[in-house]
Amino acid sequence: MAAASSSSKLLKRISTSLNSIQHSFFSSSSSSSSISRIPIQQLKFPHPPCSSSRVSSRDFCSPTSNFDQGPAAVDYSALLQEDEFHKLADATIHDLLEKVEEYGDSVDIDGFDIDYGNQVLTVKFGSLGTYVLNKQTPNRQIWMSSPVSGPSRFDWDRDSEAWIYRRTKAKLLETLETEVQQLCGEPITLSKRAN
């Protein structure tokens, strides 16, 4: 509360100073020209002054940056209920478990191993690398660590009915198909495509 009070006092002092400067400027020029005094509230600023009663140092009327800081943080949990998230994520991970297990049996990869426990799917392709996929319930996401593309976080997209990495628009299953074929040299079919 003390911080809000001191911020309020600081804003009042700044406003008083600006009014004083404005008054001095226009009263000294009014003798030589017909410029009338303009209230500070009517002045046009390139960025509007802060209107919040609680002002912090980062809110202090600084212009917004034009730098690309990636996608804006969105609370996707509001879009996907927890029970629906578990149903979709579990179905995806269990389907992956079965298909990758079949794939591992059909190709000769030294050190191939697949494990699912504590909601984490781990697929080891021996010396070629390891994939780790797990559910992130608070974020309503599936996170993947890939030996090819690194870490990524997939959100459920209702329109395409697929897990999508929002930064690149890549789909989880298609990404895995491409990367596993690149690693192992043999194609794998994980997604359902309408051809």
Automatic annotation (TrEMBL):
One Pfam family it belongs to: Frataxin_Cyay
Q: Which PROSITE patterns match?
A: FRATAXIN_1, FRATAXIN_2
CDD domains per UniProt: Frataxin
User: Does Flavoprotein count among this protein's keywords?
Assistant: no
Question: What SUPFAM superfamilies does the record tag this protein with?
Answer: Frataxin/Nqo15-like
Q: What is its main location?
A: mitochondrion
Which catalytic reaction applies to this protein?
Answer: 4 Fe(2+) + O2 + 4 H(+) = 4 Fe(3+) + 2 H2O
EC number(s) per UniProt?
A: 1.16.3.1
Please report the name of this protein according to its UniProt entry.
ferroxidase
Q: Which organism is it from?
A: Centaurea solstitialis
